């Protein structure tokens, strides 16, 4: 099979063993993937897109899964994040190169245009000369080009691409306006002007700008400072990168979100716990963590199947989210294991939140329409621990919460222990 350098394909049995794997021309077989999070995700939802580490090398990839009809096999095709973004980076580098060349050309030529804009009569003359070679060059390039007089923040020239990008009907409707009208955050513009004034240029600055109709978008800005008769003129090229930013954000979301429940995945949850631990340790703040485990969850999967188990996990995650504040953090750390992080909360407050979650889980009846109506009542065991002066690292607090969770199970489950 013809695959690109960054692609791989695998056939994995339902027993968790790799039947065949092809990557960069190499073929391997027989590895045990049962403990891999990616295999667990594949079993839970065999027709999906998944972002995570691969089966063998542990390289972050985006996978597409599918179950092979009538065979106990799954097929997975993986592609690296860099490969997906390659076209974006290639396009961005091309635009940067074009912008640099155009800037060099225009820096030498715009002196004429700047000179023309010094009087009202010259302004009419300059506008009458739109057939000039300079204007043709600027209007041909696929980059927004704009001239701004920095002393009064006034736009004195914009090419056609700039009009299109900012959704302005004509140059007359743009020239004479303040450039600050098109920045989403004026503080960003102030820092941009300061940087250009200090260094004489700005390269590849990524900031949010604003179109004429008010829509905010991400732009990449490169600028050079020109001096004419004591006035400072900013010559800028602006590239609309909104679509590429959205792609980057989606990849980040896939990398940090549990694909099934929509809460944080284990990696993001642990990073957040570590960050909040250090912050509250430094400022002597309150911090409490809850570790939750759905009781007898394996019986749900065994009796009703993984599709019902998935619905139960989604239901449980939604209950947890419904009982916490906006500043709190919910994550799935394992198969049926969850964690809730409660900033600015002491142990007593954490126990109260845990009890609310436990009561709501046990009181709710989960209704699932399948070939027949399935009614399920879940229960959960919860261990609670709060930050203490004796904790030197986040793991100390987590170990106490895990010990409390074990105690809740030992007491018969459906309990809260702290």
Break the fold down into its secondary structure elements and pairings.
Blueprint: E1 7-13, E2 18-23, E3 26-28, H1 37-44, E4 49-53, E5 60-67, E6 73-80, H2 81-116, H3 120-128, H4 133-140, E7 144-149, E8 154-158, H5 160-165, H6 186-199, E9 201-210, E10 216-228, E11 231-240, H7 242-256, H8 266-283, E12 287-294, H9 297-304, H10 306-322, E13 329-332, E14 337-343, H11 347-363, E15 366-369, E16 373-376, E17 380-386, H12 394-410, E18 416-417
Parallel strand pairs: 17-18
Antiparallel strand pairs: 1-2, 1-6, 2-3, 4-5, 5-6, 7-8, 7-11, 9-10, 10-11, 12-14, 12-17, 13-14, 15-16
Helix pairs in contact: 9-10
Describe this structure in words.
The protein is α+β, with helices and mostly antiparallel strands. It has 3 domains: 74 residues, Beta-Lactamase (2-Layer Sandwich), CATH 3.30.450.20; 161 residues, Beta-Lactamase (2-Layer Sandwich), CATH 3.30.450; 161 residues, Reverse transcriptase/Diguanylate cyclase domain (Alpha-Beta Plaits, 2-Layer Sandwich). The chain has 12 helices and 18 strands. The chain has a 6-stranded antiparallel β-sheet. The chain has a 5-stranded antiparallel β-sheet with strand order 8-7-11-10-9, sandwiched between helices. The longest helix has 36 residues. The two termini are 56 Å apart.
Largest sheet: 6 strands, antiparallel
pLDDT below 50 for ≥5 consecutive residues: which ranges?
A: 114-123, 125-131
Number of strands: 18
State Rg.
Answer: 29 Å
Q: In CATH terms, what is the architecture of the largest domain?
A: 2-Layer Sandwich
Give the overall shape: globular
Percent helix range: 40-55%
- End-to-end CA span: 56 Å
- The CATH superfamily of the largest domain turns out to be PAS domain
- Which strand order spans the largest sheet, edge to edge or round the barrel? 3-2-1-6-5-4
Order of SSEs, N→C?
A: EEEHEEEHHHEEHHEEEHHEHHEEHEEEHE
SS-based class? alpha+beta
In what range is the share of β-strand residues?
A: 25-35%
């Amino acid at each position: 099979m013809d695959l690109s350098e960054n692609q791989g394909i695998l056939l994995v049995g339902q027993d968790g063993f790799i039947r065949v794997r092809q990557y960069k021309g190499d073929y391997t077989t027989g590895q045990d993937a049962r403990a891999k999070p990616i295999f667990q995700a594949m079993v839970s939802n065999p027709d999906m897109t998944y972002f995570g580490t691969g089966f063998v090398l542990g390289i972050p990839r985006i996978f597409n899964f599918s179950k092979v009809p009538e065979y106990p096999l799954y097929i997975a095709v993986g592609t690296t994040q860099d490969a997906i973004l390659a076209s974006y980076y290639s396009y961005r580098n091309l635009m940067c190169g074009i912008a640099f060349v155009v800037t060099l050309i225009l820096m030498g030529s715009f002196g004429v245009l700047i000179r023309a804009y010094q009087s009202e009569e010259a302004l009419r003359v300059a506008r009458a000369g739109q057939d000039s070679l300079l204007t043709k060059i600027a209007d041909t390039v696929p980059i927004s080009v704009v001239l701004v007089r920095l002393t009064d923040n006034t736009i004195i020239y914009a090419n056609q691409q700039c009009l299109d990008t900012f959704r302005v009907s004509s140059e007359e409707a743009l020239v004479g306006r303040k450039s600050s009208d098109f920045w989403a955050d004026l503080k960003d513009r102030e820092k941009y002007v300061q940087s250009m004034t200090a260094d004489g240029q700005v390269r590849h600055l990524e900031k949010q700008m604003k179109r004429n109709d008010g829509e905010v978008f991400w732009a990449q800005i490169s600028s050079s400072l020109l001096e004419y008769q004591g006035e400072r003129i900013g010559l800028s090229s602006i590239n609309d990168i909104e679509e590429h930013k959205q792609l980057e954000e989606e990849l980040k979301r896939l990398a940090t979100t549990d694909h099934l429940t929509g809460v944080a995945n284990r990696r993001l949850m642990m990073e957040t716990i570590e960050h909040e631990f250090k912050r509250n340790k430094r400022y002597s703040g309150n911090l409490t963590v809850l570790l939750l485990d759905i009781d007898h969850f394996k019986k749900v999967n065994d009796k009703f199947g993984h599709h019902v188990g998935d619905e139960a996990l989604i239901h449980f995650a939604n209950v947890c989210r419904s009982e916490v504040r906006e500043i709190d953090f919910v994550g799935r750390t394992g198969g049926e294991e969850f964690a809730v992080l409660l900033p600015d909360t002491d142990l007593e407050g954490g126990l109260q939140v845990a009890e609310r979650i436990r009561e709501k889980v046990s009181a709710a009846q989960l209704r699932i329409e399948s070939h027949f109506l399935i009614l399920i009542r879940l229960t959960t065991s919860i261990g609670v621990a709060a930050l203490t002066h004796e904790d030197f690292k986040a793991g100390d607090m987590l170990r106490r919460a895990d010990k409390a969770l074990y105690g809740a199970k030992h007491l018969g489950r459906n309990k809260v222990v702290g």
